[in-house]
Structure formats: structure tokens, C-alpha cells
Design a protein that fits this description.
The structure is a single chain. With 404 residues, this protein is mostly helical. The protein is built from 22 helices and no strands. Helix content is 55%, strand content 0%. The structure holds heme C (6 copies).
Length: 404
């Protein structure tokens, strides 16, 4: 009996000794990098994402439960744990991948970050939609809004016209009932002669001018883009969205475009890279079954076939372009050349990719010489002139640098 009692006590002791979530800066930092590497694609701290919002999880669950769940959630679910099975069903049986490589301490650091970290993101996340609206506002008014505003203005103008028309007819009726001179009556009842207006020279001139201007603009735009594919936006075999992956999920470009920092080509990811996640993620959160678009990835992998992505950017063979030189050495952001890819549902060619475009940037752009021994000598030689070293000064305008 005493034995059982002491066991119970031990049990209670062990429970009471449940480790505390530390709020030390060190633990939060360690947790943050673990979180970014393993959890960020599915979890946010204060908002539901592919998985639940995590802040406060150490209040709703035992620490030991969390440690088990993070290391192997399926094991906990299959053991019949009530909370886990309920959560699993709530998230449409989305499987959270196992993290067997995480130690108990790692999970404790993760919890430090989850409970105390990322406070700056907590503020805008409060109202969810508010946060999104603020985000949109700070990045300028999107063009769809401008169209809507224009449409509203047109409707308002039409309403004003109708009201004015009504006022005119009411006034006319009223005045007709008054005892007035014949001349005044005639003036009141005169009709605007629309036929006359339509036939008038001024009207014809204005309309012709507008039509000519529109045609000319289209023609000029067309001429300038002969052979230039700017804006080219082909339909892809899978409805892959950069907005979703690179924007909403914040997956780094390099995760998929593995070549950008090491070589000439950026690389289009193979289906295996997609499978790192889509082994687990079979559909967008909240939808049942396997998404038909994601099914196409499974088919490609099963049949060992590549996905036939349509190339968007295409320099002619006579020109040589190297990504690592620009991204790694030059320190240029992808968006400088490719535009806001992380906002595009479907990729479109943002820049003209003409020779003039390359040269123009080489004339204007300073090279990053700091911390690059390769340039030390050049910088010395260049020291007499006061201008910063530009790409043109290292041969960026030489034909042979870009042409074979
Ligand atoms: C592929 C997406 C995915 C990844 C990556 C992921 N999770 Fe999850 N997580 C989920 C989903 C979905 C759930 C809801 C339960 C379920 O469906 O299994 C969940 C549930 C949880 C829960 C339980 C929350 C609660 O309210 O009880 C915790 C804790 C958790 N995850 C922590 C983590 C941590 C820590 C990491 C990184 C080491 C991580 N998750 C990585 C998808 C993911
Ligand atoms: C999850 C994987 C993934 C991520 C992350 C990703 N991409 Fe892509 N990217 C692709 C795939 C797949 C294609 C080919 C299909 C297409 O064009 O949409 C592609 C195509 C492109 C293209 C057009 C290539 C061509 O055909 O000329 C550009 C440019 C590009 N990505 C830039 C970026 C940038 C910049 C980022 C980061 C902001 C990024 N990508 C993040 C997977 C990814
Ligand atoms: C790092 C993780 C990750 C990688 C890598 C990844 N995805 Fe995704 N993808 C997701 C997540 C998470 C979702 C679901 C988003 C949601 O719940 O809204 C998703 C959604 C999708 C969807 C939307 C499905 C639908 O029905 O709307 C498509 C299509 C897709 N991914 C294709 C791809 C392709 C193709 C690749 C490889 C080039 C890829 N993904 C790589 C995480 C990833
Ligand atoms: C200085 C301008 C510039 C920058 C910066 C740049 N790109 Fe490119 N990118 C290009 C050009 C030009 C092409 C067309 C290359 C060709 O056809 O040979 C291209 C092509 C691509 C392609 C198609 C596949 C390929 O390699 O030809 C992808 C994917 C891509 N870029 C992704 C990226 C990503 C991701 C980044 C940032 C990490 C980036 N680019 C930065 C100019 C740039
Ligand atoms: C947004 C600016 C920008 C654009 C656009 C750009 N470049 Fe560059 N380029 C740079 C910078 C910066 C460097 C210098 C990198 C370094 O420090 O070596 C560079 C270097 C180069 C070099 C090496 C020059 C040398 O003397 O070592 C070549 C070749 C080159 N670019 C080709 C191209 C081609 C081809 C295009 C057009 C398809 C292009 N670049 C478009 C910024 C640009
Ligand atoms: C910074 C890179 C760069 C440099 C330097 C450069 N070019 Fe080009 N050039 C290109 C690119 C990219 C194209 C292809 C784009 C296009 O067709 O508009 C091109 C296209 C051409 C074409 C073919 C035009 C056509 O209509 O097909 C000729 C000819 C040419 N270059 C000659 C030269 C000569 C001569 C020099 C030296 C004075 C030179 N280039 C220097 C990048 C460069």
C-alpha cells in the first residue's frame, strides 16, 4: 500500500516538475531558428495557418504531450489520445511531419519562441483581416482597387445626372402651371436637340481625336515590344502559385531555385522538391481529399516523368547570363529583375531582357567591393576618380562578356 502511495506521490512530483518554458533571450533565439527551419511553413504564432496558431499551446497542453506530439504526432494520434485525435480531425487529417531529430531541449526552446518570441508580428495579427488590409495599403493601392474606385465614380456621376434630370422635369412642370409670357414658356419647353449635337463638328472632332489617340497608343506599345516578351505569362501545366508558396508561406526562393547562388542557371525545381512538403500536404487547408493540382505532382513522381513547365524567361542563345554573378557577387535582389514574384499567382516576365536593359543597369549600378579581395586592386586604381566603381568599370559593357 505504502509502495503504491509513494509511486503516486512520485507521479505527482514528476508532474509538478514539468519544465518551465524559459523566457531567456538565448532560448527564444534558438527556438526561432528551429521554428523557421522546421515549422514556419505550416504554423504562425498568432494565426491559424496550415496548422493551429501556436502561442499559448503550453497552457492548453502538458509539456510532455507537446514534446511527444512535435517529435511524432502520428504516434500520439494513433495511441488514441483524445486531444490529439480531435485536433487531427479538426485539421482534416493533415499529417504534421515527425521531427525525430529534435531533442526535448529543442522543443523547450521552440516553446520559448512560441510563447515569447515574434511579438512584433503579434500586433498586426490581432484582427487578421485588418492586418492584411494594412499590408496591402503599405504596398501601394493595387490596380484592382483603382478600377473599383473608377467604377464607383461613374455610377455616382450617373446618379447625379438622373437626379438633375428629375429636377429639370419637375421644375418644367411647375413653371408650365405658372402664368407666364409666351416667349418664356417656349424657352422653358425647348428640347435639347441630340441629333444636332451628334452631327456638330465639335463632337465629331472630339470623338475622332479620342479614337486616333487610342489606336496610336496601342500601335506604339506594339511596336516597342516586337521581339520583346515583356509581360509574357504562359499557362503552366500545374497551377503552381508563387503568391501562395513564396508569398504567403514565405518559402525562400533558394529552397526551390537551388542554382541561383552557385551557378549560371537558377533551376526549376524537380517534383522531388515539391514532395518534401506535398508528401504531407495533399490539399489546401480546409479542403477534403487530394487536390487535383497536387495529384499531378504525384503522377509525375509515380511515372518518373518531369513536369513540363513552360519557360517564361528566355534570352537568345547568343547572350550569356549568370545568376550567381548577379545574386551572390552582385548582391542584387531577384525582384529587381523579376518583379514582385511573391505576389504572382502565375509568373510573368517583368523586365524587357533586352541588351539595352542589361547595359543600362551596368552603367548605373555600383559594384559591391567591400569584403571582396578580388576588387581591392581595382578599387585602389580607381581611387583617383571620385565616382563609385560601377559595373561598366569592370568590363560590364564589353561585348565578349555577354556574347560568346
Ligand atoms: C506540414 C505542416 C506542419 C509542419 C511542418 C509542422 N506542423 Fe505542427 N501541426 C500541423 C497540423 C496540421 C497540426 C494539427 C494537428 C494535425 O493535423 O496533426 C499541427 C499541430 C501542432 C501542435 C499542436 C497544437 C495544439 O493546439 O495542440 C503543435 C504543438 C505543433 N503542431 C508544433 C509544431 C512544431 C514545433 C513544428 C516544427 C518543429 C511543427 N509543428 C511543424 C502541421 C505542421
Ligand atoms: C516551392 C517552390 C518555389 C519557390 C519557393 C519559388 N519558386 Fe519560382 N518557380 C517554381 C516553379 C515550379 C516554377 C516553374 C513554373 C512557373 O513558372 O510558375 C518557377 C518559376 C519561376 C520563374 C520563371 C522561370 C522561367 O520559366 O523563366 C521565376 C523568375 C521565379 N520562379 C522566381 C522566383 C522567386 C524570385 C522566388 C522567391 C521570391 C521563387 N521563384 C520562389 C518554384 C518555386
Ligand atoms: C515547403 C513546403 C512546400 C513546397 C516545397 C511546395 N509546396 Fe505546394 N503547398 C504547400 C502548402 C503548405 C500548401 C497548402 C497551402 C494552404 O493550405 O493554403 C501548398 C499548396 C499547393 C498547391 C495548391 C493546391 C490547390 O488545390 O490549390 C499546389 C498546386 C502546389 N502546392 C504545388 C506545388 C508544386 C508544384 C511544388 C514544387 C514545385 C510545391 N507545391 C512545393 C507547401 C509546399
Ligand atoms: C540581374 C537580373 C536578375 C536577377 C537579380 C535574377 N534573375 Fe533570374 N533571370 C534573369 C534573366 C536575364 C533570366 C533569363 C536567363 C536565360 O534565359 O538564360 C533569368 C531566368 C530565371 C529563371 C528561369 C530559369 C533559368 O535559370 O534560366 C529562374 C527560375 C530565375 N531567373 C529565378 C531567379 C531567382 C530566384 C532570383 C533571385 C535569387 C533571380 N532569378 C535573380 C535575370 C535575373
Ligand atoms: C539590375 C542590374 C543588372 C542587370 C539588369 C543586369 N546586370 Fe549584369 N551585372 C550587374 C552587376 C551589379 C554586376 C557586377 C557583379 C560583380 O560584382 O561582379 C554585373 C556583372 C555582369 C557580368 C560580369 C561583368 C564582368 O566584367 O565581370 C556579366 C557578363 C553580366 N553582368 C551580364 C548581364 C546580362 C547579359 C544582363 C542582361 C540579360 C545583365 N547582366 C543584366 C547588374 C546587372
Ligand atoms: C551586359 C551584356 C551585354 C553586353 C556588354 C553586350 N550585349 Fe549585345 N546583347 C545582350 C543581350 C542580352 C542580347 C539579346 C537581347 C535582345 O535580343 O534584345 C544582345 C543582343 C545583341 C545583338 C543581337 C540583336 C538582335 O536583334 O538580335 C547584337 C548584334 C549584339 N548584342 C551586339 C553587341 C555588341 C557589338 C556589343 C559590344 C559593343 C554588345 N552586344 C555588348 C547583352 C549584351
Amino acid at each position: 500500500m505504502a509502495l503504491i502511495f509513494s509511486f503516486l506521490l512520485l507521479g505527482i512530483n514528476a508532474f509538478a516538475a514539468d519544465p518551465e518554458v524559459s523566457d531567456s533571450e538565448e532560448a527564444i533565439k534558438a527556438g526561432e531558428s528551429l521554428f523557421n527551419a522546421n515549422c514556419k511553413t505550416c504554423h504562425k504564432l498568432d494565426q491559424k495557418f496550415t496548422g493551429p496558431a501556436l502561442r499559448g499551446v503550453s497552457d492548453r497542453r502538458d509539456i510532455a504531450w507537446i514534446q511527444e506530439f512535435v517529435k511524432n504526432s502520428q504516434k500520439v494520434i494513433q495511441s488514441g489520445d483524445a486531444a490529439a485525435t480531435k485536433l487531427f480531425a479538426e485539421f482534416n487529417n493533415t499529417v504534421m511531419p515527425a521531427h525525430p531529430f529534435l531533442s526535448d531541449e529543442d522543443v523547450m526552446s521552440l516553446l520559448s519562441y512560441i510563447e515569447y518570441g515574434g511579438q512584433e508580428e503579434a500586433a498586426p495579427a490581432e484582427g487578421g483581416a485588418d492586418g492584411a488590409a494594412a499590408g496591402a495599403a503599405s504596398s501601394g493601392v493595387p490596380s484592382e482597387y483603382l478600377t473599383i474606385i473608377l467604377a464607383v465614380l461613374v455610377v455616382v456621376l450617373l446618379l447625379i445626372l438622373i437626379v438633375l434630370g428629375l429636377i429639370v422635369s419637375v421644375l418644367t412642370k411647375y413653371l408650365n402651371k405658372q402664368p407666364l409670357e409666351e416667349e418664356d414658356k417656349e424657352f422653358i419647353n425647348q428640347k435639347t436637340d441630340f441629333k444636332k449635337v451628334l452631327k456638330s463638328d465639335a463632337f465629331i472632332i472630339i470623338v475622332t481625336a479620342i479614337v486616333v489617340a487610342l489606336v496610336a497608343k496601342t500601335a506604339i506599345d506594339g511596336l516597342y515590344s516586337v521581339g520583346v516578351q515583356q509581360g509574357y505569362q504562359p499557362t503552366q501545366p500545374i497551377a503552381f502559385s508563387h503568391k501562395l508558396h513564396a508569398g504567403d508561406k514565405e518559402i525562400p526562393c533558394q529552397y526551390c531555385h537551388t542554382g541561383v547562388e552557385i551557378g549560371r542557371s537558377a533551376n526549376i525545381p524537380s517534383p522531388n522538391i515539391c514532395m518534401n512538403c506535398h508528401m504531407h500536404v495533399q490539399n489546401v487547408a480546409g479542403k477534403e481529399g487530394v487536390s487535383p493540382e497536387i495529384q499531378k505532382i504525384y503522377d509525375a513522381v509515380d511515372n518518373n516523368q518531369p513536369i513540363e513547365w513552360v519557360r517564361v524567361h528566355n534570352l537568345p542563345d547568343l547572350a550569356y547570363f549568370n545568376h550567381s554573378q548577379h545574386v551572390k557577387v552582385g548582391g542584387i535582389e531577384c525582384q529587381t529583375c523579376h518583379g514582385p514574384i511573391e505576389e504572382m499567382e502565375v509568373v510573368r516576365q517583368h523586365s524587357a531582357l533586352t541588351m539595352g536593359w542589361c547595359i543600362d543597369c551596368h552603367r548605373k549600378t555600383d559594384i559591391k567591393t567591400a569584403g571582396n579581395e578580388y576588387y581591392d586592386k581595382l578599387v585602389q586604381l580607381h581611387a583617383e576618380s571620385k565616382d563609385a566603381l560601377k559595373v561598366k568599370d569592370i568590363g560590364g559593357l564589353e561585348c565578349a562578356k555577354c556574347h560568346y
